Amino acid sequence: MFSSASPTLLQPIVHPLLTEKKVSLLLKRDDQIDTEISGNKWRKLKFNLIDARNKGFETILTFGGAYSNHIAATAAACKRFGFKSIGYIRGDELNKNSNPTLQKAARDGMELRFISRSDYKERDNLPWIKTLEQQDRAYVIPEGGSNEQALKGVSALVQEIEEPFDCLVCPVGTGGTLAGLVRGINHEQSIIGIASLKGSNYLEQLITDLLPDVDTNHWNINHDYHFGGYAKFDDHLIDFMMSFSKRTGIPLDPVYTGKMMYGIFDLIRNDFFAEGTRIIALHTGGIQGVFGFNEKNKRNLLAADL
Ligand SMILES: *Cc1c(COP(=O)(O)O)cnc(C)c1O
How far apart are the first and last CA of the chain? Predict the structure, then answer.
């Protein structure tokens, strides 16, 4: 049922800047894993669902914001693999018809429970989580899906990469993906995470704590490309994304992968990477979020892109 699929495509990016600066860039297309359970969310869910099944759970319970890719992916995965799903959603003013992400999650059978922003702050409070676990006999997955099982799924993706590389780049939200990748690299390789949130300087410690067994310090988080914060953007970002997509045929999302790719090109332009550096960027997916983004911001990103 959870049989491992074939490795995702490693797609070379062709661009005059890469030629000029003599660096190579390949994009690992985890956005193509599945149209509904895309990218890093599937990598992070997979071993959680296996663990839940092995332990006899029939219900998965998790947390997320109104546009959360993790909520969308969890609802779709639970539907497909026969789990009941419950989502605690930040914001008690919302309802299940309030945006495309929540509508789809509800259609996929997720029971949405809306809680106030202040109650939502308790999402990592262990006694509360225990209560939820017991009340619904549920297997609880944290916000963003980032736990030990998630790291296992993400680090497996590094093993799929057969091309030699020097630097791996990924977007960063909760930090689970970055932590999983760090676990997967060897001592000659390094990782850069591009933060999507403003003021996320707590992440470095959090990731170090997630990796007590890892002795490499060949990773860091760049905080220069959040564009004002989570889901914030400006015309530079949107113009960049549109021209990237036109050139390559690859869609990006404005919350994570667009900012990552913008950051990579900006770093290359500023000679951050030595000549000859072989970069692999992880396309973590997130395209479902574009529909909510379009609606909220009266844009038509994907249609304009391709
Ligand atoms: C959730 C998400 C991320 C962030 O992953 P973390 O493990 O939370 O850091 C990056 N990209 C996309 C497309 C996502 O949906």
Answer: 34
Q: Cα–Cα–Cα angle for 49, 52, 55, nearest 5°?
A: 150
Residue 110 has pLDDT above 60, yes or no: yes
Q: What is the pLDDT of residues 262-272, one digit of tens each?
A: 999 999 999 99
Amino acid at the residue 237: L
CA distance 33 to 41: 10
The answer to whether the CB of 254 is under 6 A from ligand 1 is no
Of 261, 258, 246, whose CA–CA distance to 287 is shortest? 258
Residue 3 pLDDT level (bands cut at 50, 70, 90): low
Q: Is the CB of 65 under 6 A from ligand 1?
A: no
Mean pLDDT (whole number) for 252-258? 95
Amino acid at 168: L
Ligand 1 pocket check for 180: Cβ under 6 Å: no
> Is residue 210 in contact with ligand 1, taking CB distance under 6 Å?
no
Q: Is 177 in the pocket of ligand 1 (CB under 6 A)?
A: yes
Ligand 1: atom nearest CA of 73 is 15
Q: Distance between CA 173 and CA 254 in Å, rounded?
A: 13
Q: What is the pLDDT of residues 134-178, one digit of tens each?
A: 999 999 999 988 899 999 999 999 999 999 999 999 999 999 999
Q: Which pLDDT belongs to residue 297?
A: 86
Confidence of residue 306 (pLDDT cuts 50, 70, 90): very low
Amino acid making up residue 43:
R
Rounded to the nearest angstrom, the distance between the alpha carbon of 20 and the centre of ligand 1 is 31
Report pTM. 0.94
Ligand 1 pocket, mutate which of 174, 197, 225, 282 (most atoms under 8 A from CB): 174
The residue whose CB lies within 8 Å of the most ligand 1 atoms, and thus the one to mutate among 31, 40, 155, is 40
- CA-to-CA dists, residue 82 to 49, 77, 146, angstroms: 10, 8, 22
